[in-house]
Amino acid sequence: MGPMQFADVGDGPPLLCVHGGPGGYDQGLILGETFRVNGFRVIGPSRPGYLETPLKTGTTLTEQADALAALLDYLGIERCAVVGVSAAGGAIYELAARHPRKVSALVAVDCVASKYQPPVSDLEMKLFVSTFGFKLTAIMADYLTGATIKGLIAQEGKLDRAQVAERVAHIEADPLKQAYFMAMVHSFGDHAAKRVPGARNDNAQLGAIAALPLERIIAPTLIIHGTADNDVFPSHAEHAHRHIAGSELRWIQDGTHFCFWLSDTAEADRRYAVDWLRHKVTN
């Protein structure tokens, strides 16, 4: 399929951790860290157009799925579990549908499952999905951490002012959540220019989805989604749950788009995902 950058860390059952947009292998490691410390081998690829994986490795969602399958072949992994977040939804759902023998279990965290429409204007999207926009977010997080947390929570979630203030206070009082936040923001802004092609391609591909082959997915599937997600709306989770036979849908109450790391119940939700996955890959 072409070159693909990836990280490979930890020991145990292999777990392919696929980042959202913007992102890269570093964001995949952030997603996978809770699994790594609980006994999984985490493989975090940079999807095409991100960091050192050229866009020519896979422009379309089906090509990206095939590229991920080829990476598993390259690593000699016949079958493994897959976790994806946000914009990875198109690629991981296609992977599970197109290569059913390779995917033993699937966890989709706030994932796109149908046509994606950004909740911001075209102008705002152009400003953010740029080298300047990605870098600015990281710089603001470094120097105006509280304000950046507040802005991101407010923008990425459907919470009222009091709920936003409460969530920000909760995050600021939790060093682990702050660490997750800073790591995530830098997975947008570090080497920002090398993330722009992938992010723009994601928007084009996800915005052109007619229908994903969800009915063809046979792997046990856990769908985790925030009820207050204002980026990838909860309707995506409902759509995936409705079309993937036997899937389980776990809501994170009042969770915004970063709820797997930053919600009030994030620790419990990650623990649930770890236990669910461990059960599926060992039985």
UniProtKB/TrEMBL annotation:
<dbReference type="InterPro" id="IPR029058">
    <property type="entry name" value="AB_hydrolase_fold"/>
</dbReference>
<keyword id="KW-0378">Hydrolase</keyword>
<dbReference type="InterPro" id="IPR000073">
    <property type="entry name" value="AB_hydrolase_1"/>
</dbReference>
<keyword id="KW-0808">Transferase</keyword>
<keyword id="KW-0012">Acyltransferase</keyword>
<protein>
    <submittedName>
        <fullName>Putative hydrolase or acyltransferase of alpha/beta superfamily</fullName>
    </submittedName>
</protein>
<dbReference type="Pfam" id="PF00561">
    <property type="entry name" value="Abhydrolase_1"/>
</dbReference>
<dbReference type="GO" id="GO:0016746">
    <property type="term" value="F:acyltransferase activity"/>
</dbReference>
<feature type="domain" description="AB hydrolase-1">
    <location>
        <begin position="13"/>
        <end position="111"/>
    </location>
</feature>
<dbReference type="GO" id="GO:0016787">
    <property type="term" value="F:hydrolase activity"/>
</dbReference>
<dbReference type="InterPro" id="IPR050228">
    <property type="entry name" value="Carboxylesterase_BioH"/>
</dbReference>
